[in-house]
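User: Reviewer 2 asked us to show a designed sequence for the structure in our supplementary figure. I'm pasting the structure tokens here. Could you produce the per-position amino acids so we can include them in the response letter?
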């Protein structure tokens, strides 16, 4: 590679890194790019048992991206191997698990090529992790080629790809449009850096016309990048619990919500008072909270929380979200019996940690 070409590549790497930082709030921290001349590439592949006809590869165990410098689509290959596989292995929960398996001499073949068990892995877009791994890389190389004005090089690369690779790219491209870019990255297990609008955009895509029936959406939980996004929704839709690997939605029909809030159900009052309204009329929401704060504690409310706590085994089978509140239901019932109204799990924790 000439100095001019190396200088040009360095400029593109900087441009791509800047875009990734701005768009996804991510940076490569461990991955290294190792360009090889044709002669050195052949020796490298022969020594390590790689295909000499390949033009690029990524080794997860060492976070190393190798590319052959005489390829006419070098830029696209760099974006694929270095950024695509590098970001996936460094930041995606799926990719980090792959690295852990390889570094501990585990069975990476089964992890990559066996069909994903959805009960054990809810993240990802494909039936196999090799498709999650390669699909993200080919999607990102196309995006980076577009962002750096190298669409022509991507098109040249795409024209030479096997049909199954082109289909994989198109599937990932369609998934981005269907899920939003934020939802797409989240579904692949990347850290979630978001504002209210990004979350609502995902919910609107998910709900489609049913979103017209939503009264309000509350964001609660830890809200950490590596944690699920927890949403509490009240609407005229049927009550439901939804989880897709990164998004937890606890949705209540208006009538059921009214019943549960009247009974000071800790599973309802906790998101209301510990969370933040991100969609809906703020005045109506505050009036609702004021009503709950001032309503009288009834024996019915106490009995309701006891009954909910006693349903632990049933919840474990049918509603894994509410099992988190089992201890809270017992404690809430006890405090309500004493004339106190905790409203949130955090308040209960403060009371019972003394």
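Assistant: Here is a per-position design you can include in the supplement:
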């Amino acid at each position: 590679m000439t100095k001019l070409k190396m200088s040009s590549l360095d400029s593109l790497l900087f441009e791509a890194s800047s875009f990734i930082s701005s768009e996804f709030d991510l940076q490569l921290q461990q991955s290294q790019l190792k360009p090889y001349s044709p002669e050195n590439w052949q020796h490298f592949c022969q020594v390590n048992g790689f295909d000499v006809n390949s033009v690029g590869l990524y080794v997860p165990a060492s976070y190393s991206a190798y590319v052959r410098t005489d390829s006419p689509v070098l830029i696209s290959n760099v974006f694929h191997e270095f950024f695509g596989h590098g970001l996936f292995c460094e930041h995606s929960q799926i990719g980090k698990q792959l690295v852990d398996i390889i570094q501990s001499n585990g069975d990476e073949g089964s992890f990559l090529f066996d069909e994903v068990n959805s009960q054990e892995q809810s993240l990802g877009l494909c039936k196999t992790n090799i498709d999650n791994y390669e699909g993200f890389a080919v999607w990102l190389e196309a995006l980076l080629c577009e962002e750096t004005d190298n669409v022509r090089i991507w098109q040249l690369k795409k024209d030479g790809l096997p049909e199954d690779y082109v289909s994989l790219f198109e599937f990932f491209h369609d998934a981005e449009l269907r899920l939003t870019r934020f939802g797409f990255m989240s579904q692949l297990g990347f850290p979630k850096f978001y504002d209210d609008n990004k979350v609502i955009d995902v919910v609107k895509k998910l709900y489609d016309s049913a979103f017209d029936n939503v009264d309000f959406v509350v964001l609660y939980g830890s809200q950490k990048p590596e944690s699920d996004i927890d949403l509490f929704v009240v609407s005229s839709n049927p009550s439901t619990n939804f989880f897709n690997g990164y998004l937890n939605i606890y949705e209540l029909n208006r009538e059921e919500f009214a019943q549960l809030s009247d009974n000071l159900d800790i599973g309802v009052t906790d998101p209301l008072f510990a969370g933040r309204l991100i969609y809906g009329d703020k005045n109506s929401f505050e009036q609702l909270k004021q009503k709950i704060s001032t309503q009288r504690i009834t024996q019915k409310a106490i009995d309701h929380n006891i009954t909910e706590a006693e349903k632990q085994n049933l919840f474990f089978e049918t509603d894994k979200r509410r099992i988190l509140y089992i201890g809270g239901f017992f404690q809430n019932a006890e405090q309500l019996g004493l004339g106190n109204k905790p409203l949130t799990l955090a308040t209960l924790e403060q009371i019972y940690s003394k």
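For the response letter, you might also mention the following. The chain has two domains: 3-187, 196-352. The two ends are 67 Å apart (CA to CA).
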